[in-house]
Design a protein that fits this description.
It is a single chain. The protein is of the alpha+beta class. The protein has two domains: about 5-130, no CATH class; about 150-245, Immunoglobulin-like (Sandwich), CATH 2.60.40. It has helices spanning about 5-10, 15-35, 40-80, 95-120, 125-130; strands at about 150-155, 160-165, 175-180, 185-190, 195-200, 205-215, 220-235, 240-245. A hairpin with a 5-residue loop joins strand 6 (about 205-215) and strand 7. Helix 2 (about 15-35) runs antiparallel to helix 3 (about 40-80) and helix 3 (about 40-80) runs antiparallel to helix 4 (about 95-120). It is elongated. The model is unreliable at about 1-5, about 85-90, about 90-95, about 140-150 and about 235-245 (pLDDT under 50).
Length: about 250
């Protein structure tokens, strides 16, 4: 039976489908032992994919050849009595075009029939489906400073504010700052709600402050999600509004 989730992730244009098939088969080859995919089936599917790649290579070559024919004929029309000169004569039959066109449809039927089978396998978890490109990638938590237009760093009222949306619990987002004063990076607090406010007095002369927002777990162990933003601030810059965006 047709699986809506799987088919909805299938690309709509021909070349994207070829890329998808390549990625899917590569991942399936790596997971064959887990999902009990027969080696003979994989070999046959790879052969189909190879033929399909040959077909697109032939199609591109044929298109180029057609353009060359057209250009040669157009040139000949300007030369009375001239004959079109084709620099790369080619017989499409030598590429087995009839056989290859049949395989174009057969490959995807083969892949989808196998997908419908492995979806019944208890080991085909959501993560495995993502690896097989039959589910879209898992949505990651939005980065504090990578969102637009509300996510931004700015200084106003004599304070620096980092603002953006965060997954709960926000208290696990630790903020450090390097004020370029020789003291190095210092922990200045955690995000409260959707923003962090640095109450440190702004410098009298322009200086670049670099803030790092890092997600950590309950044991204060880094979880690998980091956002960095740098902005130039000084005391006279207060109330200037948004001045920077996250990177």
């Amino acid at each position: 039976m047709r699986n809506a989730t799987t088919r909805s992730y299938f690309p709509t244009d021909a070349k994207s489908r070829l890329v998808w098939a390549n990625n899917h088969l590569t991942a399936l080859d790596q997971l064959a032992g887990v999902l009990d995919v027969p080696a003979a089936w994989l070999t046959a599917a790879k052969a189909d994919l190879s033929h399909l790649e040959d077909f697109y290579a032939w199609r591109d070559q044929a298109a180029e050849l057609a353009r060359e024919y057209t250009q040669a004929i157009e040139r000949a029309e300007w030369d009375i009595g001239g004959e079109p000169v084709i620099t790369q004569p080619h017989d499409p039959a030598t590429l087995g075009i009839d056989k290859t066109v049949t395989i174009v449809a057969g490959l995807y039927r083969r892949l989808f029939a196998n997908i419908d089978v492995i979806l019944q396998n208890p080991k085909c978890t959501a993560e495995v489906r993502r690896q097989l490109f039959i589910l879209p990638p898992e949505t990651t938590a939005p980065d504090l400073l990578a969102l637009s237009p509300n996510a931004r760093a700015y200084f106003t009222g004599g304070e620096v504010i980092l603002q953006g949306r965060l997954p709960k619990p926000a208290r696990f987002w630790r903020v450090t700052v390097d004020r370029a004063d020789g003291a190095g990076a210092q922990v200045v607090g955690t995000v409260a709600g959707a923003k962090f406010t640095d109450h440190h007095e702004l410098p009298a002369k322009p200086a670049t402050w670099t803030y790092t927002v890092e997600l950590r777990d309950k044991q204060d162990v880094p979880l690998g999600k980091v956002s960095v933003v740098s902005l130039t601030v000084w005391h006279g810059s207060a109330d200037h509004g948004p001045e920077g965006a996250g990177a």
